[in-house]
Amino acid sequence: MSDNLLEVTDLTVRYVSSRSLVLNRPTSHITAVDKLSLTVPRGTSYGLVGESGSGKSSAGRALLRLEEIAGGQVVFDGQDITNLSGEPLRQLRRRMQMVFQDPIGSLNPRQRISTILTKPLRVQGSHDRRENLRRAGEALELVGLSKSVLDRWPHEFSGGQRQRIGIARAVVLNPELLVADEPVSALDVSVQAQIINLLLDIKAELNLTSLVIAHNLAVVRQLCETVGVMYLGSLAEEAPASQIFSTPAHPYTRALLSAAPIPDPHVEDQRERIVLEGDPPSPAQRHKGCKFVGRCALRQPTRCADEPPVLREIGPGHRVACHFAELLLDEQAAATAHLPSALVTPPPAV
After folding, report:
1. pLDDT tens-place string over residues 187-231
2. Is 35 exposed, middle or buried (0-12, 13-18, 19+ CB in 10 A)?
3. What does the alpha-carbon distance between residue 340 and residue 87 come to, in Å, rounded to a whole number?
4. What's the rounded Cα separation, in Å, for the pair 76 and 71?
5. b/e per residue 333-343 (b: at least 16 CB within 10 A)
6. How far apart are CA 103 and CA 159, in angstroms?
7. Whether 112 contacts 167, CB under 8 Å
8. Would you call 8 helix, strand, or coil by DSSP?
9. How many CB atoms lie within 10 A of CB 178?
10. CATH numbers and ranges of domains, the chain
11. Is the distance from CB of 58 to CB of 33 less than 8 angstroms?
């Protein structure tokens, strides 16, 4: 048995952006995920963060084979599933499940909760109605809801309760891998902490391996041991969560961290603000050099515009795609050496 449950190498996902009016064939594509490589060890949580449109959700869906893979390789528990289809893929899906971003749209409004929770069991070949209802009730209790809600409809629940039902549907098959796509972004702030604590409890109880997709840095800091920062379809930086928040080595990661608020007015007024220039370039645009070159304060046009940075290791478990990562770390160390510890503390968890 491999120590890594999920191994992704050069994953590429493309979407058709235009078609020929005559032949109805694709004439151009947008690359949503561009040669993404990552590894998720068993029993750990990996967080993917980045701006909207960075390719996080497309990557998560492709890993579960919910999107077509244009290139690269996905290995799950030692098995190459990149081109898996039909019955073998259906059987594999019971071992890997997803919690979707929208707790309202992900539940069928025409089905009772009992039908929603037992359908995955029926699809996987379990047709004992009594046993299926028992397992559905156990899944509900696991997420903090009563078995009595099995006969109710989705519209009778709040957003937080619907997300709990979505999590129950994902764990009813007792999967090994759980992909959570923005699990709290559509919820009220008062409910977000409850769902985060619930995910932590379920991970510990079921010994789950998880991939958490989010744009909220506080969420991944609470849930994940390792964090990967995506920019325009590729990894800009990857490191243990504590290292990402304390010593970011990519200009984009530093900008994301500076945008995260700290609930201390004194610290908030004194800490450095990093405002990026312009907007992210279009995914349809071809990039000869670094994708971040147009917004980076460290850029050197002669190198950054022509030479794409390689995702390289600069420390144990710390990879970064920047020509000047070491320079950035040196500048950061010099700038924070004289500051109180409160001013260099990463944003708090939820």
Report:
1. 888 888 899 999 999 999 999 999 999 988 888 999 999 999 999
2. middle
3. 59
4. 16
5. eeeeeeeeeeb
6. 6
7. no
8. strand
9. 23
10. 225-350 (3.40.50.300)
11. yes
